[in-house]
Amino acid sequence: MSSPFLGSRKSRRKALKLFFTYVALATLVIVLLFPVLWILSISLKTRLQVISTPPLLIWTPTLDNYREVLSKGAFIPGLWNSLLVAGGSVLLSLGIGVPAAYSMARLRYAGKETIYYILLLMRMLPPIAVLIPMYMLFDALGIRNTRASVALAYTTFSLPVVVWVMRSVFQELPKEIEESATVDGASRWTTFVQIVLPLTRPGMVAVAILCLLVAWNDFLFASVLTSTATQTLPVLVASYSAFELGVEWGPLAAAGMLVITPVILVSILAQKHLVVGLSAGATKG
Amino acid sequence: MSKFIDKYFYIFSVGPTVLTMFIVFGIPLGFSFYLSLHGWTPTPSLGGGPFVGLQNYIFLLEDSKFIQSTIFTIVYTVVVVSIELLVGLSIALLLNQEVPLIRMARSVLAIPMMVTPIVAALCWKLLLDPQYGFINYLIGQKLGWTGDPFLAPITVAIVNVWQNAPYVGILLLAGLRSLPSDPKEAAAIDGASAWQTFWNITLPGLRPMILVALLLRTIFEFRTFENVYVLTGGGPAGATNVLSIYTYGITFGQLDFTYGAASSWMMLVTVAILCSIPILLFRAMDRGRA
């Protein structure tokens, strides 16, 4: 008689393997989440609780830090700027890039591959190479310090990604669906808008998140191309944190949490789509 | 009308992308090269200073700060990308098993890469604070993670490995799951050990995804900026002065736009060379196999 646990050497080895797998999984999850949970905890502590040694693990959470950040005046305008810039850039990138990706997946025309590779190459360049001239050109045109100028800059980072991922998404659609629509007399545009687009919604969600990440998370371009009136949230948070901190950690952590919560929420809600989008371009080349 | 649109559909579809990229990205890129060939003027204007040819580039190559910064950036990139690939591959292999609760672990994987880099650096700045940081409390030391010239580069690297190794994990996990299972099963029947199967079947199958991850991470680590900006500002004493920080400093700190433009073009050439090495290496390996 052999019980499943004390039995053969094979099943014992299997149990041991499972044990180590879970230890490794637990470690992984803790390491991935800990930094975020740590600033979450700081954001809910008072000034004295933050500097207590050993660190407090149980305390009555306070929302004072969030109240302070939200009432400070600069945060709400910053949030508004971030939303406008990110929203504008996501819409522009998808509106311009998705049709281009579709035609690159389906049509034959001269220069198609060249355009595709030049786009990818542009995404590869160190962004600081275009930041300096953008600063000067936008200044000369009188559009520096506007939200539109940063949104445009982000659109040029996102477009190659949109084309890269969406092209492979469109290529995976069976051609027959579109062909039968064309036989029925629908124009290419109608086919694209009414038949192809609804079928590729998951891919579009993924790409929209990637564009959102570019625009929401960027600091470098926003720090140079915006003014105090048009600055986005990362610039605001950096202005608190780039210098010596003192003990004002609570409000700082609260501001940080407010910046990252929206993107983390979006990513959790669209988890499945996102993984598809992240790997679509990469696995299909 | 719709026939007209159909006939020129390719122009309507791809035209806006090409135009936007040319005007907003291409022209500035060309202009930055133009700037790099011109001298400094006290009032930065569109025309730049006098034409000086390659003088800015020559000055850069004689500038010990630039050379140090270049060497540091290359070493930093190679080390961080190697760690990210190794950790990412381990994560992918771990998460490729089918055990209960594994989905939860997979869903956590995308969180670090979502975090705004400035905020990620801030998280770690608080965690690694010499006085009140949790890490120093854990190890019972008072290490100056950002103030020590030996530790500062490690600190800067930790933030990016934490943010991006999981992303490599996502890519490679997708790769693992797209591999056919027959060769693996055949190998198991033939009595191959787990290690042999991994080395001879899984790893070669993953090569395209590994190359993509390697290139993407090299490109993005080479331009690293936010973690350094928040944690060390390039210090102490230039110990973490990556090229982005160096270029940012001369351009927007010293307002030397033309020298900065030249520096950014040097970055561009360096990263292109850096990326071509793995491409050529992988190609040579392919030829060796064939």
Task: Please outline what is shown here.
Chain A is mostly helical and 285 residues long. Chain A has helices at 9-43, 47-50, 64-71, 75-106, 112-124, 128-141, 147-172, 175-183, 188-199, 201-217, 220-225, 233-241, 249-269, 271-284. The model of chain A has no long low-confidence stretch (mean pLDDT 86).
How many structural domains in the coordinates of chain A?
A: 2
Percentage beta strand of chain B? under 5%
Mean pLDDT of chain A: 86
Instruction: Let me know the largest β-sheet of chain B.
Output: none
Helix content of chain B: over 70%
Largest sheet of chain A: none
Question: What is the CATH topology classification name of the largest domain in chain A?
Answer: MetI-like fold
CATH class of the largest domain in chain A: Mainly Alpha
Per DSSP, the total helix count of chain B is 14
What portion of the residues of chain A fall into strands of 2 or more residues? Answer: under 5%
Radius of gyration of chain A (Å): 25 Å
CATH arch. level architecture of the largest domain in chain A: Orthogonal Bundle
Q: Which term fits the overall shape of chain A? A: flat
- Tally of separate helices of chain A: 14
Q: What is the percent of helical residues of chain A?
A: over 70%
CATH superfamily of chain B: MetI-like
Structural class of chain B: mainly alpha
Name the pair of protein chains with the most residues at their interface, and give those residue counts.
A-B, 91 and 96 residues
